[in-house]
Design goal:
By secondary structure, the chain is mainly beta. The protein folds into five domains: about 60 residues, no CATH class; about 100 residues, Immunoglobulin-like (Sandwich); about 80 residues, Sandwich (Immunoglobulin-like), CATH 2.60.40; about 90 residues; about 90 residues, Immunoglobulins (Immunoglobulin-like, Sandwich), CATH 2.60.40. The chain contains two helices and 42 strands. Strands 1, 2, 3, 4 and 5 form a five-stranded antiparallel β-sheet that branches. Strands 7, 8, 10, 13 and 14 form a five-stranded antiparallel β-sheet that branches. A five-stranded antiparallel β-sheet has the order 19-18-21-22-24. The longest helix has 7 residues. The chain is globular, with a radius of gyration of 26 Å. The two termini are about 25 Å apart.
């Protein structure tokens, strides 16, 4: 049912899982009836996790204590019965109006909501209606910046992008705090006047089907006309990047060109070059046997919201230009001892690929990983199905370990983390951690553990509450 109104929520997906993750394996699902009712019959004794999913609502997990937090397990004995009252909370909403100098609403202006995820990223967009009113929905709890996009009102008048709080820069913008089951109202914006520019250009050396323009709010695309000509209109002053990827160029050519826009139109010549070539080598860090076939390398563009591309060791291929994040998944019994050719960031490695260049990424593997295990207890008893998180103290180590790791305890309250690079970690068990990869990590609240290469460390934990 809806948490705020108590109304039944028909046709809601309810999932029951018998494993400690949210993969399809070990999961059965049903749809709620017209009265919001659901049931799972004929279950065997065991440990289960229940969640309910509906568009426009925060995912409900049985027993969760924080929005978007982990749920608690349901332990069923033979022939037992368990009742759940699933109350779903509607995702947050921000509404307001885009107004002119006379406080009259302006129709057709795009408005974007930004959230801090490593960097400010647009997560929702809307256009103002005939009253100048916009509505940004489906927002998770947290702090957002609201920004109107550029708009050309007449031949001589344009509106510059403006943040709520009448600011033109992120540093001066006024944040909006979004909560579940609530609607933030009157987040009005009165954009300042200015001039919008036009970026036109010509591809040289070869042509392509389309050109991308990387902007603060995501990529824009334009077709390439005969003669290699392209253009983008209604651009506010700022820094942009012209991108032509291999697919658009029909093979092994690409282009990447930064452009600084002021209040005047800009013309650029963009030279097509050979696409950057990326080689990925996997080698043993020391004497020992390694399983190269079991290593997966994940590449994701930093300026894109698309998922990562999975490649294998030994790849030697043209690649698209730009800034990329690199992650490595190793088979059991291995860890990444070093990643050469890329720089560590908070939770991944990063590398820049430029047209005409060749880049080699070397992954050194060891077959002597560390392991951390133990028992989680609450009030002296084993905590079954409790979430456990592991975070490296050092940024470079965190990148090689794959960021913050998480698992759940088994039926005896035992947790295990395997395949660890040697170094210092903090491990904690709690149902109250949100956004463990970001500001939600409770620094200093967990147990400090140091593991050496090939060593297994036992560290028992208590289920932690921050209240």
């Amino acid at each position: 049912m809806a948490n705020a109104t108590g109304q039944p929520l028909a046709r809601t997906n309810v999932h029951l899982q018998t494993r400690n993750n949210e993969s399809p394996a070990g999961q059965i699902s049903v749809l709620t009836g017209s009265g919001g009712e659901f049931s799972f019959d004929g279950l065997s004794a065991g440990i289960y996790f229940l969640r309910a999913v509906r568009k426009g609502y925060e995912t409900f997990r049985h027993g969760q204590t924080e929005p978007d937090g982990p749920g608690t397990p349901i332990v069923l004995g033979a022939g037992s019965h368990f009742a759940v009252n699933a109350r779903l909370r509607r995702l947050g909403v921000v509404t307001g109006a885009v107004l002119d100098e006379n406080q009259v609403g302006i129709e057709g202006v795009s408005v974007h909501a930004y959230r801090m995820v490593k960097a400010w990223k647009a997560v929702a967009s809307a256009r103002t209606d005939d009253r100048g009113v916009y509505r940004l929905s489906g927002l998770k709890p947290g702090r957002y910046l609201i920004r109107s996009a550029a708009a050309q009102l007449s031949e001589d008048l344009a509106l510059l992008p403006t943040y709520f709080g009448q600011a033109v820069s992120v540093r001066e913008a006024r944040g909006v705090e979004v909560r579940l089951d609530q609607e933030v109202e009157r987040a009005d914006i009165t954009p300042g006047p200015g001039r919008l520019g036009r970026l036109s250009g010509r591809l040289t050396g070869a042509s392509a089907s389309e050109v991308q323009l990387l902007t603060e709010v995501g990529p824009r695309r334009a077709p390439v006309r005969p003669g290699g000509v392209f253009d983008f209109g209604q651009l506010e002053p700022g820094t942009y990047t012209v991108l032509v990827d291999r697919e658009a160029a029909g093979g092994n050519l690409a282009a990447l060109e930064p452009v600084l826009m002021g209040e005047s139109d800009v013309r650029v010549g963009v030279e097509m070059k050979l696409a950057p070539r990326l080689r990925i080598n996997c080698e043993a860090a020391a004497a020992g046997r390694i399983n190269r076939r079991g290593v997966s390398v994940f590449l994701r563009r930093k300026d894109s919201q698309d998922g990562a591309t999975r490649v294998k060791c030994g790849m030697d291929s043209p690649w698209n230009p730009g800034d990329w994040e690199v992650g490595v998944a190793t088979p059991p019994g291995h860890f990444a001892a070093a990643i050469l050719g890329a720089s560590p960031s908070e939770s991944a490695y990063e590398l820049q690929l430029l047209p005409g260049s060749e880049q080699e990424l070397s992954i050194l593997l060891s077959d002597r990983p560390g392991r951390i295990s133990g028992v989680v207890r609450v009030d002296g008893d084993a905590a079954v199905g409790a979430p456990v998180y592991l975070n490296a103290y050092d940024r470079e180590l965190r990148s090689r370990a794959g960021g913050v790791r998480s698992t759940r305890t088994d039926g005896n309250g035992i947790y295990r983390f395997a395949g660890l690079p040697p170094g210092g970690y903090e491990v904690i068990s709690s149902y109250q951690i949100r956004d463990a990869e970001g500001e939600g990590w409770p620094q200093g609240a967990g147990a400090s553990v140091r593991v050496e290469e090939g060593e297994e460390v036992e560290r028992h934990l208590r289920l932690t509450s921050f209240r």
